[in-house]
């Protein structure tokens, strides 16, 4: 209950204070390339319930391809490169927190295709809480795209190396999460927000 109140307060405050920035980013995305301002994608939430995550669109509309981003992906727009580097594309998820689909801190939500590969025990733990905008695994894999770009088979590297490590970190977070630890993760995330 305290975590949800914490999420509601900070997400509402964030949306209110960042409203001018959000409007400017939305305008930039719209002027930079054809297509919608927001990117919506189905992810798996708490207890395995699907929901749609919201981000500022950083790729061309014809962005068919892998569900992971690898290195200097040609699908990424000019505005998208800057937004991704500074993680500003993630700001609309404050709305997902406000509406209760996500939390500020929690395991990052994954697409159904990859959740289907989770080991049952870890799946149960990781999906027992609301997914988050940030978590310890996000901080550890901040440069995941570059890491995957160096792999011979990026998707295999993600499924066999990156995802299992992220799942272990997510499960460890769930087992020990407190409001104090969430605040530490938020502060560490803000400290890492440098292009």
UniProtKB/TrEMBL annotation:
Belongs to the bacterial sugar transferase family. This is Lipopolysaccharide/colanic/teichoic acid biosynthesis glycosyltransferase. It comes from the Bacteria. The lineage of its organism: Bacteria, Pseudomonadati, Pseudomonadota, Betaproteobacteria, Burkholderiales. One of its GO terms (molecular function) is phosphotransferase activity, for other substituted phosphate groups. Residues 3-192 form the Bacterial sugar transferase domain. It holds the Pfam family Bac_transf. Keywords: Transferase.
